[in-house]
Design a protein that fits this description.
Strand order of the largest sheet: 4-5-10-6-7
Structural class: alpha+beta
CATH topology of the largest domain: Uridine Diphospho-n-acetylenolpyruvylglucosamine Reductase, domain 3
Strand content: 25-35%
Distance between the termini: 44 Å
CATH architecture of the largest domain: 2-Layer Sandwich
Amino acid sequence: MTPFELAEPTSLKDAVALLDAGDPTVRPIAGGTALMLMMKAGVFRPSKLVSLAGVKDLVSIDRAGGELKIGAMTPLAALERSDAVRTHAPVVTRTLRTLSNIRVRNVATVGGALAHADPHMDLPPVLIALGARVAVQGKSGERTVPVADLFAGYFETVLAKDELISALIVPPQDGRRAAYLKVTTRAVHDWPALGVAVSVAVDGQAIRDAAIVVSAATEKPVRLAGAEEAAKNAADDAGLRRAGDAAADEAELITDAQGTAAYKKELVRVYVARALRAALEGHGR
């Protein structure tokens, strides 16, 4: 690695002040699980890293006003073990159990995982399906961004170079049921070829409305509005298959080391239907 300066602020305000909107070689670092690998590989050569490890206010999990608020520096393992997370959004707890491995989850943070914008990550599609948003702090103040609007492309976000994610907010789920399924070519904790997250509201045995999000097979996590429309009133396998077919037709898929776009199209067709079935039956809650 090339030499770099390390700044260690102890407040969010000081951390933001150290960033430079005009210098992409100045970067914040959270857990560093991805950034350090990029630096070792020579993909990224920073002039300055702004460590957020000393900003203790960013480590928190709170439920207030029906919402779940998670500080950006909260380790993923803390979410996995949290009773508040398990009660508010159990699909997050279930998802984390197969996200990479426990060593990574002990170090990787919520904000860092989202800001890295790797389309293979498991949490972004789940959070989009849950209607989550992030609080973003910059030199001009705070703004909120729906997680669905956070990702601009492959490893890209809408964050300015002098902005930080300070918190993740998950709204009340009001009885909605959610599920996440992923397809890996090797071990269950490996990078997925496809991730499918769904959240459904149910009338009796039928889906009233659905949020359907796919990732890993796409350049960024995306909601599939056509598939969501097709899922309305689905109550049996035929209805769920129609939603899967609509998703396969709608999703713009990529070929990569995890599989071809044609292969992933068939995965989308099958796994959207399966995820909807899991949510409908309450298996993914």
